[in-house]
Write a structure and sequence with these properties.
Structural class: alpha+beta
Order of helices and strands: EEHEHEEEHEHHEEEHEHEHH
Shape: globular
Helix content: 25-40%
Strand content: 15-25%
Number of strands: 12
Number of helices: 9
Radius of gyration: 19 Å
Distance between the termini: 38 Å
């Protein structure tokens, strides 16, 4: 057989039908998949919007976080839907070098009174995304509890699939006076590339908080030593802050070049966490700690 199949939520015979995701067979070894994925990235999955996705079972087991780590290593964004894992390899990806981020004066004015943390409130960030971020209707969020749990378990992957130090992070922007979490996101690092997955903002109560969160994150990525900020699919606001669109082959070159040099992504010290301070590039912030590849 061909080893791959096309289908939706259940297995289907080998063969191609338009705009259906290519399924990763659950019996395929991770070693075999690791060899095949670069060929998919380079050769593509065919024309059409459905041909950016693979499809895999989302299980509460050891294989799923290992599978996610392998997919990230090869440049896929591990999304979810219909109770399945939906790894996406974009035809066009929006990326930027963090130092090239554009930050407007309005964002700087709005940054007063907020501060940044990382990996402090993962459950609260996930819950906020699920409640406040949706595709069409409230509650229609692809970041399910099962997928978020699988993301967390990637940090425990060891051995040969632990390449690039792949790990997921929660990014939190807090209103300092009230202690309220006002914006944040879930993302992941692979080598010196940070990828944004999905996020939220409480824009009704804190107008502009989402823009402040992006600005402070971009500056902290720069300060930490990241080479590339992967913003995923094209959206207007991403290009407004400096994102540029690259075809799949350029994205593949970038991730293959930068995935070997691991960069530590940690919270700023409490006294350095003020959003305006970070955005304004106040000196004295710690530089990146590099770990050997």
């Amino acid at each position: 057989g061909c080893g791959w199949s096309r289908g939706g939520g259940s297995a289907s015979p080998c063969g191609r039908s338009r705009n259906m995701a290519v399924r990763i067979p659950s019996e395929m070894s991770l070693e075999d998949l690791d060899v095949r994925l670069p060929k998919i990235v380079d050769g593509g999955l065919g024309p059409g919007p459905g041909n950016e996705f693979l499809l895999a079972e989302l299980r509460d087991d050891d294989r799923t976080p290992q599978l996610i780590a392998i997919l990230i290593w090869h440049g896929f964004l591990p999304m979810g839907g219909l109770g399945m894992l939906l790894p996406k390899i974009h035809l066009v990806r929006c990326i930027m070098e963090p130092q090239d981020m554009h930050i407007g004066r309005k964002v700087k004015r709005r940054a007063k009174g907020f501060h940044l943390t990382l990996n402090v409130a993962w459950p609260l960030v996930v819950d906020s995304i699920q409640r406040l971020t949706y595709t069409q209707t409230p509650g229609d969020c692809w970041l399910t509890d099962e997928l978020a749990n699988a993301y967390e378990r990637v940090a425990r992957v060891s051995g040969k699939w632990r390449r690039g130090g792949v790990v997921f992070h929660s990014v939190e922007l807090w209103h300092t006076q009230s202690g309220e979490l006002v914006a944040g996101e879930v993302g992941y690092t692979c080598g010196s590339v940070y990828s944004s997955c999905t996020g939220f903002t409480r824009k009704a109560e804190y107008p502009g908080a989402g823009s402040v969160q992006l600005a402070v994150l971009g500056r902290w990525l720069e300060r930490s030593g990241f080479a590339i900020w992967d913003l995923g699919m094209d959206m207007d606001y991403k290009r407004e802050i400096g994102g540029r669109l690259v075809p799949r082959e350029e994205w593949a070159r970038q991730i293959r070049h930068h995935r070997h040099k691991e960069v530590v992504f940690a919270s700023p010290p409490e006294e350095e966490a003020d959003a305006l301070r970070i955005i304004s590039r106040v000196s004295g912030l710690p530089g990146a700690e590099q770990s050997p590849a």
